[in-house]
C-alpha cells in the first residue's frame, strides 16, 4: 500500500543524480540510508530504482514512512523514523519474574533501545496471556500502554490484573464399572485442591498433564486385559467467574481378553526356545500391554547383544471378539549385523580420555553389543567424576553395518580446597583444612591431604590411590596419619584417649566385572591414656600392656602390625546417586607379630537398591561385625564396635548403644548388628537435580560385649525422615529420628546432622 501511495511521488523521467539529500532522520546515520540506495551521485536514476529504494528502506524496519522526491536533479529521501523504546515496565505481575520476562522479550526483538514495532508488541502481549493461561489464571487481563516521549521515543507499560487461579473442583470418569472411580483418579496427576497442591499446582488445569493422565488411564486398562478400552470424549468446562474447572472423561471399558498363544516368525537367528524364555506373556494369562512391551524390548535387547543394533520386533494381535481371546504373532527382523566404527568421548575437559576409555567394555572394531555399551555407561558413571553420562549410537552415514558410540559426560568438581568450620550434632564444632582431589590432574588417581579437628578428634592424614596401577585394574594406595581421639569430649562414651601414628599400604585386585579383593598392611603406634573415671576394663588393659602406674591410671604405648583382606562386589548403577544394584563387602583384619596386640576383626555389609518407578528407590542395608582376641589376649577396647547416630541407628546419640559402665557411658562391644530400610524420593522443586535426596527410614541395631549373649530382643529401632545434599563444600546430612523401641538408659537425640566429611 505504501508503494502504491508513493508511486506519484516518483513519476519522473530518468536523470543524472547531481546530489542526494536525506531529510527526517534523528537517530539513524545518513550513511545507513545511503547504503540501501541503489544509486550514487553521477548515476542515472529511474522509476524502477526508486521503487527498489523504497522497498529496501521499508525492509530495515527503521522507518514508518519513506518518500522520494526530485528537486533540480537532486534526489531527496524523506523518512519518518519509528520511535525507539526508552523503557519497558511491568505493573501487577507477581506470577513471573520481571527480569526473566524482559529477557524473553529481548529474544523476540522487543527491548529497551531497540526500534518499536507494534506487531512485536501485540505478539508479546498474546504470549504473556498464554503464559497466564498455562498457570491456570484464566481471568488475567493485560492492558498495554504505549506513551510517546521526547526525542522520538516511547515507553511501554504492561499493566496486569492477574486475578485468581482457577482450581479443578471436580474430575469425573463416566462409564467406569469394573474399577472404582477413586482408584482410577489416583492414577491422575491432575487433582482437586489438597493439602500439598499449593506447591505441586496439580489442582490447576494443564492440557499437557491431562493428556498424560488420559494415557495413564488407557495403560491401566490395557495392562489389565481390556483390549477394547476407549476414551470416547473429554470435556473441560469453566464457570462464568473463571474460578472453577470441571473435567469429565467418558470411557468405554469393553471386555477383558485372555492370551491364547504367542508365536514367532521372521528371521529367527536365535533358537525359538530362547525367544520363549524372554516372553512374559504366556497362554492363559490376562492380556497386558505392559508385559507385551517388556517382551519385545527384551528380544530387541537380546538381539542387540549379538550385534543387531537396528533390530525391529513387532507383535501383531489376532483378536477373537466373540470369545474375548487374543493371540500374538511376533515378527522378528534383526536387520543387518553392525559393528562399532569409532568410540567418541566428549565433555571431559579435565579428565583424560584414557580414564574414561579404560572403563569401556565395548571395543572399537568389534560387533555392536548393547549389554557391553550399557555396562560401559554404568562403569563410567560409578567413577564419581561426572554428574551425567549419556550414550548415543548413531549410524555411520553412507553405511548400513556401522555405528559410532558417542559418550558425552558432564564433569563435576572432584577437588576440594577447604578452610573453614562445620558443625555436627555429635562432633560439635569441626574445624578443618584439607586439599583433596579424587581425579588428580585428570588421571583418575585420588589424593587427600588434610587436617581435621573437633572436640573429640584431631587428624592429620595424607593418602593416595591409583585405581589402575596396572592396565588390568590392580589398584595401589598408601596412607599416612596421626590421630588424636578422645570420645568422651563429645559422646556419652567411657573416658579414654588415644594418640595414633601409622602408615598403611593397600592393594586391590579385580576378580570379576563387579568383584574386587583387597589386601592391606598397617603399622601403628598408639599411646593410650586412662583416667580415674575410666572403667576397670580400660585400666586392666593399661596394666596388661605396661601401664605407667600400678593402678591402671596413666599411659601405655602399644605397637601393632595389622594385616587386612577383603572382598567387595558393587553392581550399583551409580556411585553417587544409586537407584538399583547390590553392594557387598567383607573386610577382615588381624593383629600379628611382632606387634603386641592379638585380635581379629571381621565386618560384613550387604546393601540392595530397588528402583520403584522413575524417581523412587528402596534401599535395604545390613551390617554385621565380630571381633575376638587370641593368644590369651583380649580385643583392645578402642577397637570395639559402636552403634547409634548418623550412619547406623538414627534417633539415638552417636556411639551410645550397647553395654555401659557404672556411670552410664558406652563401652562398645565385640559384636555388632545394624539394619536399615530407606525409601528415597525426589526433592520437590529440584527437578532433575540428583544431588538432593529425601528419604523415610527405619533403622535397627545394637552392639554386645564379650561376656554378653547376642539377643535380637536387645535391638533398638527408630524411624524418621532424612535429607542429604551433595553440596559444593561437601556432603550434608540431616535426620529427624523417632525411637520406636528404646531402654530407659538409652541416650536419645532426635535431630542429627553433619556438615562436610569427617576423616
TrEMBL record:
Keywords: Cell outer membrane, Membrane, Repeat, Signal, Transmembrane, Transmembrane beta strand. Residues 15-82, 83-163, 166-254, 257-335, 338-412 form the POTRA domain. This is Outer membrane protein assembly factor BamA. It comes from Azoarcus sp. (strain BH72). It is found in: Cell outer membrane; Membrane. Part of the outer membrane protein assembly complex, which is involved in assembly and insertion of beta-barrel proteins into the outer membrane. One of its GO terms (cellular component) is cell outer membrane. Part of the Bam complex. Belongs to the BamA family. GO terms for biological process: Gram-negative-bacterium-type cell outer membrane assembly; protein insertion into membrane. The lineage of its organism: Bacteria, Pseudomonadati, Pseudomonadota, Betaproteobacteria, Rhodocyclales. The keyword Isomerase does not apply. It comes from the Bacteria.
Amino acid at each position: 500500500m505504501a508503494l502504491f501511495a508513493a508511486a506519484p511521488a516518483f513519476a519522473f523521467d530518468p536523470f543524472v543524480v547531481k546530489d542526494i539529500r536525506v531529510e527526517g532522520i534523528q537517530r539513524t546515520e545518513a550513511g545507513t540510508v545511503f547504503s540501501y540506495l541503489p544509486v550514487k551521485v553521477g548515476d542515472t536514476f529511474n522509476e524502477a530504482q526508486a521503487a527498489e529504494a523504497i522497498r529496501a528502506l521499508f525492509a530495515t524496519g527503521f522507518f514508518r514512512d519513506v518518500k522520494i522526491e526530485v528537486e533540480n536533479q537532486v534526489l531527496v529521501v524523506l523518512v519518518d523514523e519509528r520511535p525507539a523504546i526508552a523503557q519497558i515496565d511491568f505493573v501487577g505481575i507477581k506470577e513471573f519474574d520481571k527480569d526473566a520476562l524482559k529477557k524473553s522479550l529481548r529474544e523476540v526483538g522487543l527491548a529497551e533501545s531497540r526500534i518499536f514495532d507494534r506487531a512485536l508488541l501485540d505478539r508479546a502481549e498474546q504470549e504473556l496471556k498464554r503464559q497466564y493461561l498455562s498457570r491456570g489464571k484464566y481471568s488475567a487481563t493485560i492492558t498495554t500502554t504505549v506513551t510517546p516521549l521526547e526525542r522520538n521515543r516511547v515507553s511501554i507499560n504492561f499493566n496486569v490484573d492477574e486475578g485468581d487461579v482457577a482450581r479443578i473442583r471436580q474430575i469425573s470418569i463416566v462409564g467406569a464399572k469394573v474399577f472404582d472411580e477413586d482408584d482410577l483418579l489416583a492414577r491422575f496427576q491432575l487433582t482437586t485442591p489438597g493439602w500439598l497442591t499449593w506447591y505441586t499446582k496439580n489442582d490447576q488445569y494443564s492440557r499437557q498433564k491431562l493428556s498424560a493422565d488420559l494415557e495413564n488411564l488407557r495403560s491401566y486398562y490395557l495392562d489389565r486385559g481390556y483390549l477394547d478400552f476407549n476414551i470416547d470424549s473429554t470435556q473441560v468446562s469453566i464457570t462464568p467467574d473463571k474460578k472453577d474447572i470441571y473435567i469429565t472423561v467418558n470411557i468405554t471399558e469393553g471386555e477383558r481378553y485372555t492370551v491364547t498363544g504367542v508365536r514367532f516368525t521372521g528371521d529367527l537367528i536365535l533358537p525359538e526356545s530362547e525367544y520363549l524364555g524372554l516372553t512374559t506373556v504366556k497362554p492363559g494369562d490376562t492380556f497386558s500391554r505392559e508385559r507385551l512391551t517388556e517382551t519385545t524390548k527384551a528380544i530387541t535387547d537380546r538381539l542387540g547383544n549379538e550385534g543387531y543394533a537396528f533390530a525391529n520386533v513387532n507383535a501383531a494381535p489376532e483378536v477373537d471378539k466373540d470369545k474375548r481371546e487374543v493371540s500374538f504373532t511376533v515378527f522378528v527382523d534383526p536387520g543387518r549385523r553392525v559393528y562399532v566404527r569409532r568410540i567418541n568421548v566428549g565433555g571431559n575437559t579435565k579428565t583424560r580420555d584414557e580414564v574414561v576409555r579404560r572403563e569401556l567394555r565395548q571395543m572399537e572394531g568389534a560387533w555392536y553389543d548393547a549389554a557391553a555399551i550399557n555396562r560401559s555407561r554404568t562403569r563410567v558413571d560409578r567413577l564419581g567424576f561426572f554428574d551425567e553420562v549419556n550414550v548415543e549410537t548413531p549410524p555411520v552415514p553412507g553405511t548400513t553395518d556401522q555405528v559410532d558410540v558417542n559418550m558425552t559426560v558432564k564433569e563435576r568438581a572432584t577437588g576440594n580446597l577447604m578452610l573453614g568450620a562445620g558443625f555436627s550434632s555429635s562432633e560439635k564444632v569441626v574445624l578443618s583444612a584439607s586439599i583433596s582431589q579424587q581425579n588428580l590432574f585428570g588421571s583418575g588417581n585420588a589424593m587427600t591431604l588434610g587436617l581435621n579437628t573437633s572436640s573429640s578428634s584431631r587428624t592429620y592424614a595424607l593418602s593416595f590411590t591409583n585405581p589402575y596401577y596396572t592396565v588390568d585394574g590392580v589398584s595401589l594406595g598408601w596412607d599416612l596419619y596421626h590421630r588424636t581421639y578422645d570420645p568422651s569430649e563429645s559422646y556419652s562414651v567411657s573416658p579414654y584417649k588415644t594418640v595414633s601414628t601409622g602408615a598403611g599400604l593397600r592393594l586391590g585386585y579385580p576378580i570379576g566385572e563387579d568383584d574386587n579383593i583387597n589386601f592391606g598392611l598397617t603399622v601403628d603406634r598408639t599411646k593410650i591414656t586412662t583416667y580415674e573415671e575410666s572403667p576397670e576394663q580400660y585400666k586392666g588393659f593399661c596394666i596388661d600392656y605396661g601401664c605407667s602406674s600400678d593402678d591402671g591410671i596413666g599411659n601405655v604405648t602399644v605397637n601393632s602390625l595389622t594385616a587386612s583382606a577383603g572382598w567387595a562386589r558393587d553392581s550399583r548403577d551409580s556411585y553417587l546417586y544409586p537407584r538399583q544394584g547390590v553392594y557387598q563387602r567383607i573386610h577382615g583384619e588381624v593383629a600379628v607379630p611382632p606387634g603386641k596386640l592379638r585380635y581379629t576383626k571381621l565386618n560384613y555389609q550387604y546393601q540392595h537398591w530397588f528402583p520403584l518407578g522413575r524417581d523412587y528407590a528402596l534401599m535395604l542395608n545390613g551390617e554385621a561385625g565380630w571381633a575376638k582376641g587370641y593368644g590369651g589376649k583380649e580385643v583392645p577396647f578402642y577397637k570395639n564396635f559402636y552403634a547409634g547416630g548418623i550412619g547406623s541407628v538414627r534417633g539415638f546419640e552417636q556411639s551410645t548403644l550397647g553395654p555401659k559402665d557404672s556411670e552410664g557411658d558406652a563401652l562398645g562391644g565385640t559384636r555388632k548388628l545394624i539394619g536399615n530400610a530407606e525409601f528415597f524420593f525426589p526433592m520437590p522443586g529440584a527437578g532433575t537435580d540428583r544431588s538432593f535426596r529425601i528419604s523415610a527410614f527405619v533403622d535397627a541395631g545394637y552392639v554386645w560385649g564379650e561376656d554378653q549373649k547376642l539377643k535380637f530382643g536387645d535391638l533398638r529401632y527408630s524411624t524418621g525422615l532424612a535429607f542429604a545434599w551433595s553440596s559444593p563444600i561437601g556432603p550434608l546430612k540431616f535426620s529427624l529420628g523417632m525411637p520406636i523401641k528404646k531402654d530407659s538408659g538409652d541416650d536419645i537425640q532426635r535431630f542429627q546432622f553433619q556438615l562436610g566429611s569427617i576423616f
